[in-house]
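Side project, low priority. Logging it here so it doesn't get lost.
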Amino acid sequence: MGSKGPFCLETCARPNILALQPYRCARDDYQDDGTNVLLDANENAYGPGLALLPDGRLKAPLLNGEIDQKSLELDLRSLNRYPDPHQIELKHHLCKLRNTHVHTDNDLKPDNLFVGVGSDEAIDALLRCFCVPGRDKILTCPPTYGMYTVSAQVNDVDIVKVPLDVHNHFQLQVEAINAALSSDPTVKLVYLCSPGNPTAKLISKQDIKRILEHPTWNGVLVLDEAYIDFSPDGSSLAEWVTEWPNLVVMQTLSKAFGLAGVRLGAAFASAEVASLLNNFKAPYNVSSPTSMLATAALQPENLAIMRENRKKIMEQRQRMLVELPKISRIGRFLGGTDSNFLLVEILDRPRDQGGKASNESALSLYEALAESRGVVVRFRGKEVGCEGCLRMTVGTADEVDKLLAEVRSLLQGDNPVKNGLADGHMEQEERKEHEASEIVA
């Protein structure tokens, strides 16, 4: 057995990494055995936005009236070679998708793009590009996506928080944000999520413009549009980066496109900012299979499938908005309805008996759904302004049937989920509540 010698992990590793809370994703609480209804990670329940054969293989498009199978097949013999480091064809298709000319007459070009492993790579790359560790800061607006904080902590970057206005439907507090930017020049990045997670609320273009027009702030506004395709058509501001050099817009194929498994994200930016990001990325950061599938998803036939799946999700979203309030211990929908999930209050007693939003009731329902009914949602009650809230992904019609039936049974059946905790179990429940609230996705 080798001698330990002078090595000491506690003094060798970076202090901020030693103090980092472990990343926990949505499946850490309840592993899927293939039978659960998974409404916890905001995935597309209708599957990939791809034309597929019954056996799951890609259905080849027609080229000049003939099947063009080669265009959508990856030659496995080529996997001994590194993938395209520049991904120009993929970037071209992403630009074509977002050149809507709703917000500008300018055109996005491949030079305006950075692509990587989900939006998370772009989040981290922007921090490494603009923030000096131990000196600079980012600004976030909780409740929001947890990876902004995780990436900042990894990069030894402090965080300034300006919460959304919880008394006004999670509106952005622009005056407070601009005041913070005026008072602290070390804030280099502002991360905004639109539609928000967990708020499902779109941020207004005018509010974003007011931050971009800040008279003294030398920094970059990062707009995370992971869920933008569930919002009204024309909502994406990706093409606006051609007019605002201090704007970056992140997107992903994980949500509306139903391709969470390929891990493809994009950051639209000015050509100068995109060049910086591309200059220091890993040289082959997008794999050949990912590039092939992402390019396929952006073809007209597959875009039509994505849009049809999106239409189904929006129909089920409306159904949940109508049916959930018929259950007496369901409270308000907080935030907005611009995404593929809803933020739902769970009450400690029926509304007509003065029920109030309750973390204990929400956590009890969350656990009961997952542990005894095979439905996994997400507890969000510890986030700013989200007391008593569960975040529920919109599923297929059958999955929404199951969700509604089980929630109804647990909240107003013969043995409803109770509010309040048995003596001696408060500490255990507080621990469970803390663990459930730490889920990032």
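Brief comment: The chain is about 35% helix and 15% strand.
Revisit when time allows.
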